[in-house]
Amino acid sequence: QQRSTPISRLSQDAYLRRLASTLAVLEQRDGKLNPSSLASITAAQKLGGSIHGFLAGANAQPAAAEAAKVPGLEKVIYVDNASYDKGLPENYAPLLLENIKKGSYTHVIAGHSAFGKNLLPRVAALLDVQQISDITDIEGEDTFIRPIYAGNAILTVQSTDATKVITVRGTAFQNTTSEGGSAALEEGVDPKAESTTTWVSEDLAKSDRPELATAERVVSGGRGLKSKEEFDRVIPPLADALGAAIGASRAAVDSGFADNSLQVGQTGKNVAPQLYLCAGISGAIQHLAGMKDSKVIAAINKDADAPIFQVADVGLVGDLFEKVPELTEKVKSS
Ligand code: FAD
């Protein structure tokens, strides 16, 4: 009698696990799969059950063929239609809804990127379920972990919704393998829903450096850099010497030292590189929210009491205008 509860719970878990089926919503640009969107597959693998990938756009098939090689996917569903090319949520949400209904998925997962954040709340509303945002861990099929208050508290969310619609933090579900799988390709349903929204244009920052959100190393500058000229003189040479992406604090972005797309933190990007090296950044909680999961944090600040030193693994108290060029020369000659 005493053992009946755990055993029946165990078999119920096993039963649910078999029924779990996840649609991992992937991103593509010009027919190329966006590797950072593979985090949704890593998260789906943690849930167990069957996993289907989903892609749409003018040239979705080549990206779908790339996705088919990612281990863990049973099938990749794609829709070739230019209306979905830029992931406009007004056009994409009815498309995704039809494909979710067709597959009767228990979970729909996308990255917590601009695309996922735009799209999934709409899809959740259309399904009349709760959106679960920016999760960093999965405890079970209905229980998820997410940071709140800029990462100062961790929330455990339990959902009773029939379909769980989830965005995942990329740095918490990094995907390391994109070869070895052989998923089937299948054309999805295209409702060709009418939309009053059309894509006009985009202005993308171009850079040959690694992408900030997925870079192995990041060199960030803050208000301590004093001006855009100084930021550009001091930070890029060290980033180049380390093969790193460039990041910035919000104060540096707001002061015009660095582009918006480089902001790290609560209202910027989340990064978790092997090395996060920052100079002239005080370490406000909103900045820490975006980088404190980095493996090694190194900080240069002239104020020994700056809060950044409380999270830094390596700290250097000194004038960044002296220390950063010195470090750059050392890295170059090593
Ligand atoms: P400061 O706090 O001014 O620090 C500059 C540092 O440079 C100081 O520690 C100083 O000692 C040091 N310094 C100055 N000169 C030198 C020198 N010559 N050599 C060495 N060190 C020097 N911030 C973010 O970064 N990302 C976010 O996403 C973000 N989101 C926010 C969201 C909300 C809702 C709010 C309210 C705030 C947010 N902020 C964010 C802002 C955040 O609170 C801080 O204001 C910001 O991070 C400060 O940037 P900073 O460290 O570059 O500047």
Automatic annotation (TrEMBL):
How many and how are cofactors bound here? Binds 1 FAD per dimer.
**Binding annotation for FAD:** 223, 249-250, 263-267, 280-287, 301
What would be one Gene Ontology cellular-component term for the protein? Answer: mitochondrial matrix
Q: Which InterPro entries match?
A: DHS-like_NAD/FAD-binding_dom (IPR029035), ETF_a/b_N (IPR014730), ETF_a/FixB (IPR001308), ETF_alpha_N (IPR033947), ETF_asu_C (IPR014731), Rossmann-like_a/b/a_fold (IPR014729)
Indicate the principal place this protein occupies in or around the cell: mitochondrion
The Electron transfer flavoprotein alpha/beta-subunit N-terminal domain extends over 22-208
UniProt keyword annotation of Manganese present: no
Q: Which Gene3D superfamilies match?
A: HUPs, TPP-binding domain
Where in the cell is the protein located? Mitochondrion matrix
Q: Where is this region: Disordered?
A: 177-198
Q: By its UniProt entry, which CDD domains does this protein fall under?
A: ETF_alpha
Please provide the record's keywords in A-Z order: Electron transport, FAD, Flavoprotein, Mitochondrion, Transport
Q: Which GO terms describe its molecular function?
A: electron transfer activity; flavin adenine dinucleotide binding
A single BP term in Gene Ontology: fatty acid beta-oxidation using acyl-CoA dehydrogenase
This protein's record includes keyword Thylakoid: no
Q: Which cofactor does it need?
A: FAD
Instruction: Please name one Pfam family that this protein belongs to.
Output: ETF_alpha
Functional summary from the UniProt entry: The electron transfer flavoprotein serves as a specific electron acceptor for several dehydrogenases, including five acyl-CoA dehydrogenases, glutaryl-CoA and sarcosine dehydrogenase. It transfers the electrons to the main mitochondrial respiratory chain via ETF-ubiquinone oxidoreductase (ETF dehydrogenase).
Q: Which family does the record assign?
A: Belongs to the ETF alpha-subunit/FixB family.
Q: How does it assemble?
A: Heterodimer of an alpha and a beta subunit.
Q: What is this protein called?
A: Probable electron transfer flavoprotein subunit alpha
Organism in which the protein naturally occurs: Cladosporium halotolerans
